[in-house]
Amino acid sequence: MCVLGLGLIGGSLLRDLTAAGTPAFGWNRSTATVEAASSDGFDVSGDLVATLSRAEREDALIVLGVPVPALPAMLEAVATHAPSCGLTDVTSVKGEVLQLVEAHGLSGRFVGGHPMAGTADSGWDATLEDLFQGAVWVVTTDGAPEDGAPEDADWLQIWCRVVDMAVQVGAVVVPARARKHDGAVARISHLTHVLAEALAVTADQGGALALSLAASSFRDATRVAGTEPGLVRAMCENNREALVTALDETMDLLAEARENLADPHRDISGLVDAGHGARLRYEARAGRVKGGPTNRPYIQLRPGTTGWLDQLHYAESIGAQIGLLEV
Q1: Which GO terms of type biological process are on file (predicted)?
Q2: What gap in Å lies between CA 8 and CA 128, rounded to an integer?
Q3: β-pair partners for 109
Q4: CA–CA separation, 116 vs 176, rounded Å?
């Protein structure tokens, strides 16, 4: 495995792959990051061309762990120096990444990925072992062959390698097409960031007393507002259409709540009851704590066999975890 970009996600992935005994090496543009990771005993370099040339020689699966704005230059380098390598990514948007990959002629070797894990911190110092343990790892299915035709064999092999990589680091694989993924994460991730920023600003405008009284509910609701602003902008601004839809629905709910609170003869029971029920359904599906038992459906399939794509789309529609059977 070759990990390009050693921030929180890429660096944690390099840690876990190495701990699992998988041959893995990485690259980062920051000399300080390379020195820190090397001091921790990891095989990393600041020379992108040398790293990609090594990936080509060793038939490594390349993992793009850089922000979306850095992807065009990175994909150009991959197309030049490692054109035969399988390629995946860990970014929080999939549609725009897929378009960039297609523009660089690499779609036949690309399988998108998105681990639903992280913290508000960034950089090598924020990396953690077991960050992905029990977390959902979305593996995209755009370009999946219907019946394992010979011309699709390379893509299918790469797809299986990406699934296997996620499983190696303890993640739970859920398949999704890029557009479906982006619509879902707009609601449960990107919207969360926007609301956290708004909540943090509103509290701050309440002055010193408000901040002194802030306790666990405020801390939990605004945790992701501590994320580096550039990363928040990158994920939200690269998923505008889906995020605007989610924002519109949320603003309608908030506007109705405001109207009900402004009228002493009305109440907000509708929103509170609906929100409570939604939270309970989330807990029932995902478990109350990370790594705890879940009720997520589980589907086993044989990649490339007749009907497997229908199984993938069904798994997507019910948010099912998948496991691979040997072909």
Answers
A1: tyrosine biosynthetic process
A2: 8
A3: none
A4: 13
- Check residue 147 and give its pLDDT: 57
pLDDT of residue 304: 87
User: Within 10 A of 78 (CB to CB), how many other CB atoms are there?
Assistant: 26
pLDDT value, residue 118:
77
User: What does the block give as tokens for 107?
Assistant: 């779609």
CA distances from 25 to 6, 60, 87 (A): 10, 9, 15
Pick the CATH number of 182-262 from 1.10.10.10, 1.10.3660.10, 1.10.3720.10, 2.30.110.10: 1.10.3660.10
- Taken in order 46, 49, 55, 58, is the CA torsion positive or negative? negative
Per residue in 216-262, pLDDT (tens digit) is 999 999 999 999 899 899 899 999 999 999 999 999 999 999 999 99
CA separation for the pair 97, 75 (Å, rounded): 10
Residue 306 gets the label, from left (phi > 0), alpha (psi -120 to 50) or beta, of beta
pTM of the model: 0.89
pLDDT bucket at 124, cuts 50 / 70 / 90: confident
What 3-state class would DSSP assign to 214? coil
- Which secondary-structure segment (H or E) carries 256? helix 240-262
**Which residue ranges make up each domain of the chain?**
2-176+297-324, 182-262
Assigned CATH class of 2-176+297-324: alpha beta
CB 148 within 8 A of CB 304: yes
Which residues, in sequence order, are CB contacts of 134 under 8 Å at separation 6+? Answer: 170, 171, 172, 290, 291, 292
Give the pair of three-digit tokens for residue 279: 């939270």
Q: What pLDDT shows up at residue 149?
A: 55
Nearest to 2 by CA among 100, 87, 71: 87
